[in-house]
Amino acid sequence: METVLQLLNVLLPLGYLLAAVAYLVVFLEAPEWAKTWATRITLAVVGVHFSYLLLVTLTYRHVPMANSWEGFSFIAFAMAAVYLALEWRWKDQATGVFLLVPVLFFQIFSSAFVTHTRDVDEILRSSLFAFHVTTALLGYVALSVAAVYGTMYALLYKELKTPRVGLIFRRLPSLETLTRMTMGAVLFGWVALTLAIVFGSIWAGELASRGWLDGTFLTDPKFFLTLALWALYSFTLGGRYLFRWPNRHVAYLSIIAFILLLGSSLVVNLFLPSFHRFS
How far apart are CA 87 and CA 100, in angstroms? Predict the structure, then answer.
């Protein structure tokens, strides 16, 4: 089994490289064969990647997020999966290269340095932990994708005000489509983050009942950070769908929210105590 995992670990970055090249051709020239094969290749690689993550889980008896390099592989998988969902929903492939390139780099780093082990803390084998961390990372990845689309919107909006338009204007989808893809990613991330909060609360309560965790988890900074982010993105969704905010406000808010997410996460992870750190 480990030989199969090593082989898949080599094939995954090659597959994502092929997918990124196909989407680059779509962005530059948009021939029909490239449009067809870009999606097919990405679907195939994401399917193989899912099989790889499932095999790691079954072989080592824990969800493959016990270290940063395993996490990078899941981030690559989640980002590609979220992109495919948005492409299927809005039928637009022009933005694929902007998502597949970071997917490629995440998987390259993971494949180069990843190590798997059965020697992990017992609490990481919990099914609730698996649901919690999976939905949390899916949420964060989807919100990252929303920030990418928000940035595209800002660039295109700025270029439309210039007397001459370049390649970005000619190849990117319309501002309205970019807004819909941004909000689609925000909604996906918000739902995943909601599930992560629910699963995480149940899991923490279970750990506390077993004496593995005291009541201080209720004051954990990462717990409050997640709630604050959930509230911020709830505010964004409410502004869009209830108060009909202009598209550019939604795009800019998605960028600002992601910057706050990234900055606050770094502060919490580097400087503040948290029960999310496991031995």
Answer: 12
